[in-house]
């Protein structure tokens, strides 16, 4: 099965005309069967909040939960937690309310997290701590997929039971990775479409990277390219989860709906949608 959705649900204005913020997730779930939860990266979410989100969505809806930034080395300490054990325990506890609605945890490592022994050991440690959950792995440093390491990296992911987070992103130096169409888990594969804005990818000046990095709209030919890729991936992995992250300019929702149409998918069990007056 191919599941298509977006990263987050709050910023996709084309979905919400006059919708209160408190009702955006419910509205979102009328369009898409999955969502990537990004707020968990910045702060471990309270269990009551996760319970609320699980309750608001249909039984068939599922969440891809992004791992807290202290777990993936984006910050040098453990944030508000006393130590790493407390950090991991808090994150694991936060997942419990989702139950079967948890599609996977996404561990995205930063651009400076290169391929060396100590980092391999940390990846292995994270996987062990999250051993009770399906976990996806996404690198942001090219060293993991250079010619002499590509097959070893994929073999490592297979042996450790990682779900491969396959990316479409600009080729903009060491802080980006190529598209590697190789599932590493028989049941699940994640595809994250970040856009192809090569000029904005490394533009971090003034702290406005969110406004430019994902500023991209996929055209018809590019979506067709990915339609064929995804159909091939589905032959190798039971379920394919595709999330559009090209939302600096609000393009993700439109591209995701176009992609659903191109694949001829009609999802059952979505949340009821309020019909427009002239529908």
Structure, described:
By secondary structure, the chain is α/β, with parallel strands linked by helices. It has one domain (2-263): Protein of unknown function UPF0759 (TIM Barrel). Helices cover 32% and strands 16% of the residues. It has ten helices and eight strands. Strands 1-2-3-4-5-6-7-8 form an eight-stranded parallel barrel. Strand 3, helix 4 and strand 4 (102-108) form a beta-alpha-beta unit. The mean pLDDT is 92. It comes from Alkalicoccobacillus porphyridii.
Helix and strand arrangement:
Blueprint: E1 2-7, H1 24-28, E2 34-37, H2 39-42, H3 47-56, E3 62-66, H4 84-95, E4 102-108, H5 117-129, E5 135-138, H6 150-160, E6 163-168, E7 188-193, H7 198-201, H8 209-212, H9 220-234, E8 239-244, H10 252-263
Parallel strand pairs: 1-2, 1-8, 2-3, 3-4, 4-5, 5-6, 6-7, 7-8
Write a concise synopsis of the structure shown.
The chain has 279 residues and is α/β, with parallel strands linked by helices. Helices cover 32% and strands 16% of the residues.
Overall average pLDDT:
92
Specify the number of helices. Answer: 10
CATH topology grouping: TIM Barrel
The portion of residues forming beta strands comes to: 15-25%
Distance between the termini: 29 Å
Just give the CATH class.
Alpha Beta
Look at the structure and name the CATH superfamily.
Protein of unknown function UPF0759
Would you count the extended β strands for me? Answer: 8
Give the spatial strand order of the biggest sheet. Answer: 1-2-3-4-5-6-7-8
Q: How many structural domains?
A: 1
SSE string, helices as H and strands as E = EHEHHEHEHEHEEHHHEH
Helix content: 25-40%
